[in-house]
Amino acid sequence: MATRPQIPTLGLGTYRNDDPDQCAESVRTALEVGYRHFDTAEAYGNEEAVGEGIATGGVPREDVFLATKVLHPKFTDDYSTESIVENGRACLDRLDVDSVDLFYGVHWPGGDYDPEDTFQACARLDEEGAFDHLGVCNMTPELIDEARDVSDLPISAVQVEMHPLLQQEEIREYCDRHGMALVAYAPLGNGRVFEVPELREIGKKHGVSEAQVSLAWLREKGVAAIPKATSEEHIRDNWQSLDLDLDLGLDDEDISRIDSIDREKRQYDNPYAPDW
After folding, report:
1. Cross-sheet strand order for the sheet of 224-225
2. Are the C-beta atoms of 184 and 138 separated by less than 8 Å?
């Protein structure tokens, strides 16, 4: 059984936020608003900016939950235990931190991905104190089983695309059964949630946006969400979804109606993606 990390339920995603000044400023804005969970990756090319935003944001490092992902095989010609270790160390150097709270040892299990090389490297990084918790991204239950079989460390978090148009029942049940945290990227479906009449009507009922309804629904499912946002307006709008939980709340009818959405629109299905 994995040790489920205590992940703040709303975080800031930074995918495609590759303007250094803008990225650092969005992190500082999010800290000011109240965010304490930040997600980045080697492949995003913005770890330095995320690290700068955290370092200059006025919040002690120990109060921030920081996650990153090591480069996945598609982007390297040398995918080996040694290269993964070196890349993991480089993530910390770019972030300018001694360790991260959550280290995703697999970003995408494509290309030359090899579970034994990958998790041997993760074990070495763990011995160096590089991270507190180990996670994987974009994996099916079968691939997670394979990873757990070869990993000396518990895999305690899984990150996948999830939103009301991709409800991920199978992976949710898997994570619950094995005591893993589930983190949703693209929790607004790259804006597709604004096209869903059910979410629009529930939002009108509560006086909130479709985005806030979607984020509140994810929290009702016990899932942490990391919507990408760069502007102060969007950062604050996403944060206000917490008020829907605390003050108004989605009622049983709302949850049932969202659960019953049977349209599926996966936003990320790359050529190197697993067979979903």
Report:
1. 12-13, 37-39, 65-69, 100-106, 131-137, 155-161, 181-185, 224-225
2. no
**Whole-prediction pTM:** 0.95
Residues 6+ apart with CB under 8 A from 255: 217, 220
Residue pLDDT, tens place only, 198-210: 999 999 999 889 9
The token pair that represents 252 in the structure block: 């049983």
Could you give the CA distance from residue 165 to residue 259 in angstroms, rounded to a whole number? 9
Mark whether 44 is an active-site residue. Answer: yes
Out of 35, 44, 104, 113, which one is annotated catalytic?
A: 44
**Partners of residue 136 on adjacent β-strands:** 106, 158
Q: Is 182 left (phi over 0), alpha (psi -120 to 50) or beta?
A: beta
Spatial CB neighbours of 252, under 8 Å, sequence gap ≥ 6: none
Q: What is the pLDDT of residues 33-82, one digit of tens each?
A: 999 999 999 999 999 999 999 999 999 999 999 999 998 766 777 789 99
Cα 70 to Cα 42: distance, rounded to the nearest angstrom: 6
Q: Is 6 exposed, middle or buried (0-12, 13-18, 19+ CB in 10 A)?
A: exposed
Single-letter residue type at 255? I
- Strands 224-225, 181-185: parallel, antiparallel or unpaired by DSSP? parallel
What does the alpha-carbon distance between residue 213 and residue 168 come to, in Å, rounded to a whole number? 17
